[in-house]
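input
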Amino acid sequence: MKSKEDETQWLEISWYKDEECYAKSLSLINNHQDIQELFASFQAILASGKDEISEQEYDQIEEMSY
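output
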């Protein structure tokens, strides 16, 4: 998703089957040297002054039927 207010701000949302799958995927990504090098290269080309990437974790709340 791209911010309507600041074109340099983006939001990526990833869904996982469950907490275990999420933890396994995160571990694989964080321990894979090639991915870490690609991520470092990506961070190096971010817009000047906008080089912060942050991660948050959320729980999905099931929709209620009305």
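quick obs: Residues 30 and 36 are 7 Å apart (CA to CA).
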